[in-house]
């Protein structure tokens, strides 16, 4: 049996066993994120979900895993849980088990949640799958471009960080721990993460979309510095 045939059969079996699974997951995530910070709320999840569906159209993948992972990827971001990276995967697993999802699907979704985030760029993934590549690209696309800029400054305001301090240079070689605990000005985040994402995309669709969004950030930064220096 071809691998793709097996994935299709697995997809159909999951849906037949629980035809309302995606709808239930959407409702669960909406309820869970009702008071979330604006850059990591339901609307962020919805954008990642839509981008995941778009990217998946051009990839051979398990659609159920992609959808569930996209919907549950930020169910409990460690940034808002004292750095604890185990809470999100645990909440996702508990929900999927309550919905009687098979262990193979649950395991893949949990692994994607555990490995999706940037973590300073020096983090070596220990899990690889096409489904992870798709959802990771979708999540990274929402971190760049116009929405990425808006989310970055929203989070900076949420953490009461300065917008920019020319005396504090970006740290391009942070460890995972340094990245998680950083309190640097918001503009530094462009150099420490956002501008790096274009070259870290996994899929061809992700790479194509990232090009335009990356260029938009470059234009924004050029305008920002000109205004900061009183040139415009």
Overall morphology: globular
- The helix/strand series, from N terminus to C terminus, equals HHHHHHHHHHH
Rg from C-alpha positions?
18 Å
Tell me the fraction of residues in β-strands, as a range.
Answer: under 5%
Determine the number of helices (DSSP H or I, runs of at least 4 residues). Answer: 11
Give the integer mean of the pLDDT values: 88
Q: Give the number of DSSP strands.
A: 0
| Straight-line distance between termini | 64 Å
Structural class: mainly alpha
Determine the fraction of residues in helical runs and give it as a percent range: 55-70%
- Biggest sheet record: none
Question: How do the helices and strands line up, and which of them pair or pack?
Answer:
Blueprint: H1 3-17, H2 21-32, H3 42-56, H4 63-72, H5 87-98, H6 103-115, H7 130-141, H8 145-158, H9 176-181, H10 188-192, H11 204-228
Helix pairs in contact: 2-4, 3-4, 3-7, 4-6, 4-7, 5-6, 6-7, 7-11
